């Protein structure tokens, strides 16, 4: 065999010739980066791609990014053959998701409303209509189907070949039989890729190595905590009456999907309890490989699935196939520039939807690499949301048992992952257990969601889209914050100490607000990119000259840290992650001053300790950083307590608070309280695509501060472009009954103008409340626009009267906060 001719240089090296790698190469080349080399260890498609079932479905996600990627992918696959001469096997035979129980009916009604907002043509159809489209299906126990007539299936190998051919036609080089041995770095950035045939010097690497991506990343310290798992489908012998033209049928309640294959039926599976494969690492020579199927484990699931098409039980089995696919801890892909190495991009961990999102994924990545930042919301899939402990073998072995099965579970809004729990506990965890805390997974931390009460065992009851058993408890915690005083553990927040000669100047350079004023003050600020859109939303507290404390949400932890570190390279500033060094205990509510004053001698009067004051105070034997600030719209204090003194401080607070009616409040209450006030949460209701002005955060931007800040010019340009036609606003459902969670379309005068990005229940306002980005089209989105027209919010296929507001619906003048 001749030695492959490996170039010595390229602008971008893509590692991996599956659907993702070829799509990235295709899009880079199409967007003008022709100097792309794709390295494939063996043959293109030889990893996971070759054996995919090829479902091409646009229905089913409440993520705008995922839905847009699916739509783009389907359109791309429809035009690739004309461009490349290589067929993709796309058959737009349609797709039906069936609802076999009322909760799934509610879920799919909610999802379909959102998908329609995104331009997916999905129709709710009756069981009889399902039967007409898929005559062999048993439908007597179904409530409805959700039908997308333009969806269907593709041939994954043909799609990948077409992408590879399209990439080559635009000048990209695709090398088979050339493994990437490792990535060469210099000064923390990519410098090249080693192969057995020489090193390719390059600016950028994209690790698209599928289930090998974790091992490859680890060589450079890049954390990609994905794990391969067994993934199955069965193909029956030929079946009488089955037609190629039938739609793909999916019945998550029976763990199965069904489509014609070779005159028989393909029965694909997502079993609820699944099996990780090769925790210790994927063999380097595993090509076009299969895993011996585990009949014993799978038979009960198979029987349940096949019962949806009863005739399938009567014919023989042609093939029971098991192949590995990569799954991630939260069932979202791992995408973007790695925090550990500059210009090291990753696109892996596709969680069994790599074919149907692959086109869009390649486009997003190519845009990101070429333009320096993505043009879609990537907060949910960014590699930097993941933490290093998640790559531990025990974590992967434990969590992966749950993740594949989640694909087909009913996606209840309050469901938390149940595996790999108790990995991170706050220092006062045991005290909260004693108060009856119900915990959920908060970036791996055990976060108290609500409290059953002292000595009680919390029982959330069955999951539901309606009011859960703890609704009244939640309301009581909410009311206690509005009327009395509450204690909330938020130790999971990301905390950083920033020091150095240039710390103030560099923090001010990345902050849109002025964070370098007087010492002893906290400042709420956004960090922007050059485009004026959001990178972070956090607080900076100036403790002293050259000494700052940065606090961000748990999900933004590594993003914020990376952003800071990269800017700090320009001067003398250093950040230390002190998340574990401090517990965070929040005391909030109109009686919070009285409680705090009972545990400290420090003068906390309004004059001595005004809103935004930050000072070290004494509580018992502890020194505590006390900051007068709120994320729920009340007079309140956030206490940063050295971890080893957290229990001591907690006990003092609990003891002093008892006669004042101190109540423990959980994260459910935090969500409802902050939502009434319209406070933003990055990654939930604001993201990297929003300009700071559209996000309604212009009040926190200091355009006049000396030296400016990153993104200032873009903010000025946005201002100069005139009044905003897109704006984040609060939406209140006027009917107190229905609940909103996320993705509910908002209508004005019978036209969809946006959707609710995040929501909760406003116990004080008396209805579900959320934040929605409103697209005004030709109209300016201002108070007049919001105050006129008929506003409605669509919840599970019904439209309810709503109120839209730019000013916070609760305490718009901040009177309570400054009391
Ligand atoms: C049974 C089954 C059914 C599925 N059905 C569907 C479906 O219906 N629809 C859908 O959308 N998805 C489906 N999927 C998922 C889909 O197949 C995957 O998400 C997708 O193929 C992942 O593509 P990839 O490019 O990330 O990985 P891969 O296809 O595994 O590509 C990675 C490539 O990297 C190469 N590589 C690894 N290490 C190196 C190295 N060091 N140097 C060079 N090359 C390297 C490998 O050889 C491999 O070719 C299914 C998966 C399975 C298992």
List its traits.
819 residues; alpha+beta; eight-stranded mixed beta sheet; six-stranded mixed beta sheet; binds flavin-adenine dinucleotide; single chain
Could you characterize what this model shows?
The chain is of the alpha+beta class and 819 residues long. Helices cover 25% and strands 27% of the residues. The protein contains 18 helices and 38 strands. The strands form eight sheets. The protein has an eight-stranded mixed sheet, with helices on both faces. It has a six-stranded mixed sheet with strand order 8-2-1-12-19-18. The radius of gyration is 27 Å and the shape is globular. Residues 15-21, 39-42, 46-49, 51-55, 179-180, 208-212, 216, 231, 233, 323, 325, 348, 350, 352-356 line the site of flavin-adenine dinucleotide (FAD).
* Major sheet size, sense and barrel closure: 8 strands, mixed
Assembly state (oligomeric): single chain
Which class of secondary structure composition applies to the elements? alpha+beta
- Strand coverage percent: 25-35%
Coarse morphology: globular
Helix run count:
18
User: Which consecutive residue ranges, at least 5 long each, have pLDDT under 50?
Assistant: none
How confident overall, as mean pLDDT? 97
E-strand count: 38
- The rounded Rg comes to 27 Å
Give the strand order of the largest sheet, numbering strands 1, 2, ... along the chain. Answer: 5-6-4-14-15-16-13-17
Please give the alpha-carbon distance between the first and last residues: 80 Å
Ligand names: flavin-adenine dinucleotide
């Amino acid at each position: 065999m001749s030695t492959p001719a490996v170039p010595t240089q390229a602008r971008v090296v893509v590692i991996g010739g599956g659907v993702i790698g070829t799509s990235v190469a295709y899009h880079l080349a199409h967007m003008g980066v022709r100097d792309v080399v794709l390295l494939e260890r063996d043959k293109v498609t030889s990893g996971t791609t070759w054996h995919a079932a090829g479902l091409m479905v646009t229905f089913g996600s409440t993520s705008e990014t995922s839905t847009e990627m699916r739509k783009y992918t389907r359109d791309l696959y429809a035009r690739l053959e004309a461009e490349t001469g290589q067929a993709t096997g796309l058959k737009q035979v349609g797709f039906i998701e069936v609802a076999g129980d009322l909760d799934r009916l509610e879920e799919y009604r909610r999802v379909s409303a959102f998908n329609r907002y995104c331009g997916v043509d999905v129709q709710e159809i009756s069981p009889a209509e399902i039967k007409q489209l898929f005559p062999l299906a048993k439908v007597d126990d179904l409530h409805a189907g959700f039908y997308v007539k333009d969806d269907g299936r593709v041939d994954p190998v043909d799609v990948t070949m077409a992408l590879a051919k399209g990439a080559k036609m635009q000048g990209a080089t695709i090398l088979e039989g050339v493994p990437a041995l490792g990535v060469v770095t210099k000064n923390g950035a990519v410098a090249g890729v080693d192969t057995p045939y020489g090193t390719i010097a390059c600016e950028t690497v994209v690790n698209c190595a599928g289930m090998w991506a974790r091992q490859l990343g680890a060589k450079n310290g890049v954390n990609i905590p994905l794990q391969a798992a067994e993934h199955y489908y069965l193909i029956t012998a030929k079946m009488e009456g089955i037609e190629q033209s039938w739609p793909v049928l999916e019945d998550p309640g029976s763990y199965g999907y069904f489509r014609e294959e070779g005159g028989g039926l393909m029965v694909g599976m997502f079993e609820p309890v699944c099996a990780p494969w090769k925790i210790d690492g994927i063999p380097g020579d595993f090509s076009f490989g299969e895993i011996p199927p585990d009949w014993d484990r799978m038979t009960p699931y198979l029987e349940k699935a096949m019962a949806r098409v009863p005739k399938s039980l009567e014919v023989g089995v042609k093939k029971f196939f098991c192949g590995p696919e990569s799954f991630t801890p939260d069932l979202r892909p791992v995408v973007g520039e790695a925090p550990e190495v500059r210009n090291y991009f990753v696109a892996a961990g596709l969680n069994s939807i790599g074919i149907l999102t692959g086109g869009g994924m390649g486009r997003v990545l190519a845009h990101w690499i070429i333009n320096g930042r993505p043009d879609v919301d990537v907060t949910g899939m960014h590699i930097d949301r993941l933490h290093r402990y998640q790559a531990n073998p025990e974590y992967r072995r434990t969590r992966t048992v749950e993740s594949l099965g989640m694909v087909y579970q009913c996606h209840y809004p309050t469901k938390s992952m149940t595996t790999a729990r108790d990995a991170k506990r706050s220092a006062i965890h045991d005290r909260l257990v004693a108060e009856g805390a119900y915990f959920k997974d908060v970036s791996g931390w055990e976060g108290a969601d609500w409290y059953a009460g002292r000595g009680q065992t919390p029982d959330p009851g069955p999951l539901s889209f309606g009011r859960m058993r703890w609704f009244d408890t939640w309301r009581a915690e909410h009311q206690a914050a509005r009327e009395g005083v509450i204690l909330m553990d938020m130790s999971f927040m990301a905390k950083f100490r920033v020091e150095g000669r240039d710390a103030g100047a560099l923090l001010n350079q990345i902050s849109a607000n002025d964070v370098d004023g007087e010492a002893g003050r906290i400042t709420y600020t956004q960090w922007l990119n050059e485009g004026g859109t959001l990178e972070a939303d956090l607080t900076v507290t100036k403790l002293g000259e050259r000494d700052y404390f940065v606090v961000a949400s748990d999900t933004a932890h590594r993003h914020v840290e990376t952003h800071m570190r990269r800017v700090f390279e320009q001067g003398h500033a250093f950040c230390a992650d002190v998340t574990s060094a401090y517990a965070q205990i929040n005391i909030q509510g109109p009686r919070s001053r009285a409680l705090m004053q009972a545990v400290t001698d420090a003068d906390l009067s309004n004059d001595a300790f005004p809103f935004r004051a930050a000072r070290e105070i004494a509580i018992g034997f502890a020194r505590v950083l006390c900051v007068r600030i709120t994320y729920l719209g009340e007079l309140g204090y956030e206490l940063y307590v050295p971890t080893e003194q957290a229990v001591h401080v907690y006990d003092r607070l609990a003891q002093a608070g008892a006669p004042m009616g101190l109540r423990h409040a959980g994260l459910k209450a935090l969500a409802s309280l902050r939502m009434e006030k319209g406070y933003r949460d990055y990654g939930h209701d604001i993201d990297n695509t929003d300009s700071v002005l559209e996000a309604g955060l212009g009040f926190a931007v200091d355009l006049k501060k000396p030296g400016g800040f990153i993104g200032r010019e873009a903010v000025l340009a946005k201002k100069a472009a005139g009044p905003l036609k897109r704006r984040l606003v609060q939406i209140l459902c006027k009917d107190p009954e229905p609940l909103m969670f996320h993705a509910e379309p908002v209508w004005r005068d019978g036209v969809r103008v946006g959707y609710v990005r995040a929501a909760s229940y406003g116990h004080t306002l008396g209805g579900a409340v959320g934040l929605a980005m409103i697209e005004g089209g030709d109209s300016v989105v201002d108070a007049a626009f919001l105050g006129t027209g008929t506003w409605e919010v669509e919840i599970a296929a019904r439209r309810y009267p709503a109120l839209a507001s730019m000013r916070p619906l609760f305490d718009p003048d901040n009177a309570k906060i400054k009391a």
